């Protein structure tokens, strides 16, 4: 079916529209000046560009664009480093753990977020042990203050820099430095030092909202806990779900709405359904995956987009309520 063949046109368009948004944002400030309205619009455009860069580097990290892995790795360094200011090695280090053991505590870094947030089985554990570092029964509320706004700006920036220094990833450090040099040299003449720092923070905060909502809508509402030692496909399906496709959702989420098809493929040498399949083919392979699930009695869950987003908050509230019940009565 040629489902492993990447479309050069598709990925060229992705890179092209990312670069176009970078240029458009700069032109807005250059032509209209650094007022509030042009700045807000430029920050919004740059945040979309940064979000789409996350998606493109993610494709490259999975070696799903070029036939030779080396070209994927080089291109990922450019997108992750020059376009985003992060380390490709850092991303792959944490992302491959996520794919190997999704939603497993201490093996998937995406859900090992206690004691800030309690997810899945950690709610009962913290409640029984009378641990109360934060008002976890209100975590669905303080999530809006420290979750989406700060993940990329604070957690990722610090973790990424620490990884490059500790692991001595000097090439990645230079790539990241090239991003900051380009960004600050491009906007410093318009804003000055305080203004360009504020502008950078605004872009990162907007980008961070996208990252949290899009990457977690498939995982946080699902089963989260300790290792269950299931077979490969069952463990993946227990940890993820799909979101109904549309042209907008496919583009906006980088096709992560086909999370089941994506989650069952990765670049590590363990069993998988579709290693390195380019994401524009997920919609074509989805009916095959769905029929496989039906054959073996496995759940293949698909949600509307807005429901998937709301379920993140519902899941946090449910975990917080479970913690409170265990804390008070056990």
UniProtKB/TrEMBL annotation:
Stored PANTHER family: FATTY ACID DESATURASE 2, FATTY ACID DESATURASE 3
Transmembrane segments: 12-33, 139-156, 188-206
Organism: Pan troglodytes
Protein name per its UniProtKB record: FADS3 isoform 1
Lineage: Eukaryota, Metazoa, Chordata, Craniata, Vertebrata
Fatty acid desaturase domain sequence ranges: 34-301
Pfam families recorded: FA_desaturase
Any single GO BP term: fatty acid biosynthetic process
Domain of life of the source: Eukaryota
Molecular-function GO term, any one: oxidoreductase activity
UniProt xrefs under InterPro entries: FA_desaturase_dom (IPR005804), Fatty_acid_desaturase (IPR012171)
Any coiled-coil regions, as ranges: none
């Amino acid at each position: 079916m040629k489902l492993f063949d990447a479309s050069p046109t598709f990925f060229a368009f992705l890179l092209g529209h990312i670069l176009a948004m970078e240029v458009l944002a700069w032109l807005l400030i250059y032509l209209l000046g650094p007022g509030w309205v042009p700045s807000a619009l430029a920050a919004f455009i740059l945040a979309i560009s940064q979000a789409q860069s996350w998606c493109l580097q993610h494709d490259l990290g999975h070696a799903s664009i070029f036939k030779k892995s080396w070209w994927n790795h080089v291109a990922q360094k450019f997108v992750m480093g020059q376009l985003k200011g992060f380390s490709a090695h850092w991303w792959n280090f944490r992302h491959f753990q996520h794919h190997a053991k999704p939603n497993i505590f201490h093996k998937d870094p995406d859900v090992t977020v206690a004691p800030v947030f309690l997810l899945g089985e950690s709610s009962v554990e913290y409640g029984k042990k009378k641990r109360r570092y934060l008002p976890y029964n209100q975590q669905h509320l303080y999530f809006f203050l420290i979750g989406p706004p700060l993940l990329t700006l604070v957690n990722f920036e610090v973790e990424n820099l620490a990884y490059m220094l500790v692991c001595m990833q000097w090439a990645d450090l230079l790539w990241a430095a090239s991003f900051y040099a380009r960004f600050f040299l491009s906007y410093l003449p318009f804003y000055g030092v305080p203004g360009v720092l504020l502008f950078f923070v605004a872009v990162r905060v907007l980008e961070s909202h996208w990252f949290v909502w899009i990457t977690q809508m498939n995982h946080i509402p699902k089963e989260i806990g300790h290792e269950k030692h299931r077979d490969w496909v069952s463990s993946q399906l227990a940890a993820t779900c799909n979101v109904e496709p549309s042209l907008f959702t496919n583009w906006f989420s980088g096709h992560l709405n086909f999370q089941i098809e994506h989650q069952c493929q990765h670049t590590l040498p363990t069993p998988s359904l579709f290693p390195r399949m380019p994401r524009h083919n997920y919609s074509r392979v989805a009916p095959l995956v769905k029929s496989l699930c039906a054959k073996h009695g496995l759940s293949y869950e698909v949600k509307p987009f807005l429901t998937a987003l709301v379920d993140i908050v519902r899941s946090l509230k449910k975990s917080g309520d479970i913690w409170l019940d265990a804390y008070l009565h056990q």
